[in-house]
Give the backbone structure.
Amino acid sequence: MRQRNAQPEQDAPCVIFREAAIRRGGRIIWRDGDFEIPMGSVTAIVGTNGTGKTSMMKAELGLLPLDHGSIQVLGQPAGAANQRIGYVPQSYTSDIDSNLTAEQSVLLGLTGTMFGIHIVSRAERAKARQALEFVGIADRAAYRLSELSGGQRQRVAIAQALVSDPLLLMLDEPLANLDMASQRSVVDVLAKLNREMGMTIQVVAHDINMLLPILTGAVYLLDGHPHYAALDKVLDSDLLTHLYGTSVRVVTTPQGDMFVTPGNGSGEAVPQHTHDAAELAMMHHHEGGSR
Amino acid sequence: MNGISFAFDPNWLTTLSAPFMANAFLAGLAISLAAGVMGYFTIARHSTFAAHALAHIGLPGATGAALLGLPVSAGLGIFALGGALVIGALGKRASQREIATGTVLAFATGLGLFFSRLSSSASQQMQSILFGSILTISTGQIIGFLLFDAILLAVLAVIYRPLLFSSLDEQVAQAKGVPIGAMNIVFMAIMAGVITIAVPAVGTLLIFALVITPAATANILAASPFRAMVLATLLCLVAIWGGLVLSAMFPAPPSFIIVALSTAFWAIARGVEALRKRR
C-alpha cells in the first residue's frame, strides 16, 4: 500500500472549494463554500443533522451536482479523480447483510469495476491481505460480513477503500453505532494511515471527541455555508456552541488532549441560529475571503 | 379416506422413459442453471420480493396471450420484462419497496384472473400457469430455454464483477465508476427472463421456492459467490429431477414435489447451521 506516484504536487491543496453551492429539491443546502484543504491533513466535516455533511462528500465525489461554483479534488474537477479516492459511506456497517467474506469484499475494491472475465491474480490477493492486515482484521479474512461485528465491518470497509492505494480517504460517520473500543480501533487505523502513509483523510462526524487527537482541521457547516479552519480555531467554545446550538465547553487536559464536553448547565438550550442562507452569506463572507 | 391413494406406481420406469419426460428433464437442467445463477444475485441485491412479484406481473400477460391465442410464454415474458424495466429504472431501492410492489402484484394477479375468465381456453390454462406443468414443455420451448441460458451466461461473464460490486454497496460502486443504473436494468431484465423460463416448471405461485430458495440454501453452505451459484444450480436440479422421478412413482404433481424438496433442503441447511452455531 505504498503511495502511488502522486501526480498532484505535495504542496498543492487536496481539495479546493470555490463559491460552491448545493441545492436539493429547490432548497439551498449550503452555499459560498470557499476554502482549501491541504494534502496530508485529517479533516472532520462537522455540523448538526441536515446541514449537508454527507452532501458535501458526495459533491466532492461528483455524485451530487453543484448548483454554483466549483470543487477540485486532487487537482481535477470533482468526480474525475475518484479512482484515487477511497470512499466509505455511512450505510456500510449497518445495512450490509452480505454472504461475501471480508477478503472477497476487499478484493472488489480492486476488481469490482472490471467488465469481462477476470481471474483474481495472486498479486491482487496479496494486496487484499495486506489491506486487511493494515486494519488489523486479517484473522477474519475468511469470515462473512454478516458474521462480523459493526466495528469489524467498518474496518473491512476501510480496507476495501484502501486496497486501491488512494491518496484521499473519505469516511461518512465511521464511528456511528460503534462501541468505545471499536471507535478507538477505527481511529487508530486512521491515525496510522495518516502518519505512516501520509494519506489525506476526511471524516464526516457529528461527534468529534474521538477524532480530536488526530485532527488537523475541520470543515464546519454553519448557518448554511461551509468554512474550513485549522484545529485551534475550531476548538473554540463560542463557535462550537453556536455550531451545535447547545452549550459546549473546550477542556484542555494535563496530557494536552482537548475535549469538547457539554457545558455545566447542560440543560439550558442555546437558541440555534437559523438565519436565511443568503443573509448569512453576507455576514460570514468576509471571514472566508480574508484567509 | 376412500378414493385417495398414495400407492407406489410399479410402472414408474416406463413413465420416466416417455418422450415428454426427456423434455422435462432437459427443461429442468436449463431452468436450474438460470435460477441457480440469478438466485444468488437476487438475494445479494435484496430483490427477492421484486423477483416474486415479476412472476405475478407476468400472469395477466400469460392469460392475456392465451385469450388472444398467442404463446403463453411470450405474453408472460413481455409483461415480466415490462415490469422488470419499470422496477429497474426506478433503481435498486425501488425493488426493495415492498408495499408498492405488493400492491402492483395483487392487482396484476387480479387482472390475470379477469383475462382468464374471458375465454374458456384461457381459463383452462390458468391452472398450469399458476402451478406449472413441466410435463407439457415442448421441444420448441426447450430450445428457447437453452438460448436464454447462453445469453444469460454471456451477459454475466461480462458484467459479473461490477454487478457483484454494485450489489454489495451501490454508493461505493457508483463512486468508483460502475454504471449502477445500467447494472440494475440489466439485472431486472435478466430476472424477467429467468421468471419466464421457470414459470412453466412450477408456475407463478411457487416460483420463489425454485429461484430463491436453492440460492438461499447455497448461501448457507458456501461463502464464495461462484461456489454458491454452482451449488444453487445443483440443488435446483436435484429438486426438479427428484420431483420428476418421485411424481412418476407416487401420485403427486411434480410442482408440489419440486417445491417440497427445495424447501426441505433449505430447512435442513438452516437446522444444521443453527446447531453448529449453538456449539
Observations:
- Chain A has a mean pLDDT of 80.
- The first helix of chain A runs from residue 53 to 60.
- Chain A has one domain: 15-290.
- The domain at 15-290 of chain A is CATH 3.40.50.300 (Rossmann fold).
